[in-house]
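Section 5.1 Outputs to date
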Amino acid sequence: MNVELKKELPTYQEQQDFYIKLRSKITEYVQSKSGKAGKLTPYLLFAPDLFHLLVKSMFDDRIDAKSKTLVGSGILYFITPVDILPEGLIGPGGFIDDIIVATFVVNMLLNKFSAEMIEEHWAGDDKLLNVLKKVSETSDSLLGKLPTRSLLGRFIKTSKKDSIAKS
């Protein structure tokens, strides 16, 4: 299957600006009264760091073009205002689907490249593999609670099947 991006990736500066805005928005939310009460709060803090890892991976010459297409799709999913759980409508909790998609992309990278290489791009406080494990363990239960779980579940299942077929 030949996949190409239909939209140009934002410039590196635009991606960095998005990362800074995202980190600020989520930090403010987590520190607010409503953010502290949320069960998903610990996961929301992974969003900016997963985004950062995807951006840095795009500029890593050791990652092949085919893998970068998948990475670029993950970046565009973060940046595009229209997604399964739009942040504009439901606030920072809308980043849960972005986190799940990014985790899927990073797991695909880890299946192809060494953990050490991918971790070079990780800016998070927790170890990358620990974060991925936490998100992966809870993503099925999170998907089960989302009203749009079938759409996101289909996306992930289709992407998994495509990546397995290509292997």
